[in-house]
Amino acid sequence: MREQRFYDRLTEYLREGYDAAGAGQDKTTKQQRAVGFVMATFQKIMSSSPRAIKQALRRRLIALYARKQMSLESGAYGAITRAEISSKIINYQEKMRIIVAELLSYQGATIDYMEADSYITRLKQRLMKRPRFEEEVTHWALDAMETGNGIIETTANIPNEEKKIKELIELVDEGPDRKFDTLIRAIEQIRRENKNEKMIIFTQYLETLYFLQDEIGKYYDPEKIAIIKGGPLEDKIASCESFWDEDGAQFLISTSAGGEGINLQVCRILFNYDLPWNPMAVEQRIGRIHRYGQTETVQVYHLVAEETIEEKVYAILEEKLFEIAMTIGKVDSITGEVSEDLRSEILGYLGSGTNYTDLYREALIYRNYERTEQEIAEAIANAKDASEALRQLTLDLSTFNLEYYRELEGKFTLENLKRFTEKAILRLGGAFIPSGDIIQITVPPALKKYPDVASRYENVSFSRKTATRKKNVDLLGIGHPLIDALLDFYKSESVSGELLNAECDDMDTCLTARYLFTIEFEDGTRRELYQSFLLDGKEGLSDLDFLVCDDFRANESLKPLSFVEDKMKMFTQNQEAKIRSDYDGVINIRHKCVGIQATS
């Protein structure tokens, strides 16, 4: 098969290049390291798409011709006539023009000589700047790159390289390959279940992004395809807004670099069209959709060609992760997969301590997967040991009870907070002007003394969906300076408490009080408890119910003050006794009545 022949020939070229780079040697020169960077870049790109690797090879060939032309122009060829030099320079220029035209043909316009010459001039200017190649430390830079052009264009003396690259360019078919066909079949299967299902496709390289945009556009409406790549944030947000729109884009194609910092939890289907060597970079991609606000089960598909080094290495990595998970009981009982917390933890340590460039290079050179398996197993074992060591230095969470936190979940919502904020802001003399989910707030004077509180907020919202999908909209919630200031103000001594004495239809007669208890402990910590208790009558509406009631009428009658005071005193004494019984190390309890409600 042609694809396999190309893969084998390119692998052979890479092996020769790595050999020229001094792979396996203890010490290498800067020139050898430069060759190693070129080979590593090609090795990564060849697993992405035929177009990406063919475009990379074209750029490499243009750079080779440009360097030879520059040598002639500088007189480095010695005993050769001026006519021969001029002829060779012109010949190289013609060769480069042809390849540049092929390289830029995907932009949809015919490339003339002036445009080609301009490209060549800019390339030669870059080549005159000698880049520095330092040893990789974190190995993240290449995982996030979109082109790799700077590395591809560098000097690397590989025997007969020009001939080999020309042969590879002729051999590679830049049209759809088996991997793309697999992607389309998967998309079709998903669309049979839900024709409007939104999908994200991640790739590392711009050329693959453009390839996917062109080819998917032949099957589906091109207007339904949005792309995200490195560049201005405004462009990313525009693409995201199209994807977030229910009637907007159905497909979002993104580079790894382009997707950084973007929340895409509106979607549950993710395809990794190519895989970064560092598996933690894959987890970061998944994190774009698998995060707070995601309400659906996320489905992730890795597209890896069979009988490739990437397939072997990832299979070994998954196998060793599973073995570790089995030994410590970290396999999900429902899915049978490695638990998410262990995967993220181990891969996080691997990402900072494993040289994936060396790992993949050695796998390509030696094709000794037993050696690769041993290296991965050792790396995962070291990551597990580091994880356990760190856990010993932190609090023991073995007694963590999720059910306790579930009891707290959902007690108050952002809609509840919105109603409270609106009434509180208006009561303090500010302005609260809603327009759909977007709100304008003029901050009352009482809150302006708090740090980081602005005098006015033009675009804020209590809707997570709106805040994540609209430009320049801030989400209001606990932790926002305005909300924190508002809560702090109403808990302060400057607010003496409120008395509600009103009538309301369909409401039983009741008299209730609200108290705030402040508990101080021996270790210097404090805790605040909010308590509501019934003084007389039947239990009425909750605080949240009162927030939505607007039909109160004044009520002139009220229980005798002495009756209220006696009841409140009895309650506070009983409550303080209960607090001392429930908590250890209590040294002081202060209480404050923050509200009395009398309704009938």
Description:
- This protein is of the alpha/beta class and about 600 residues long.
- It has 4 domains: about 170 residues, no CATH class; about 220 residues, Rossmann fold; about 80 residues, 2-Layer Sandwich (Dihydrodipicolinate Reductase, domain 2); about 100 residues, no CATH class.
- The strands form 3 sheets. It has a 5-stranded parallel beta sheet, sandwiched between helices.
- A hairpin with a 4-residue loop joins strand 11 and strand 12.
- Helix 3 packs across helix 5 and helix 3 packs across helix 10.
- It is elongated.
- The protein starts with a helix and ends with a strand.
- About 0% of the residues have low confidence.
Q: Summary?
A:
The protein is an alpha/beta fold and 600 residues long. It has helices spanning 2-20, 30-45, 50-73, 82-104, 113-127, 141-144, 149-152, 161-171, 178-193, 206-216, 233-244, 279-287, 309-327, 340-353, 356-366, 369-393, 402-408, 414-427, 464-469, 481-491, 543-548, 561-582; strands at residues 199-203, 225-228, 251-255, 269-272, 299-302, 431-435, 438-442, 456-461, 474-475, 498-503, 510-521, 526-537, 553-554, 586-599. The longest helix has 25 residues, at 369-393.
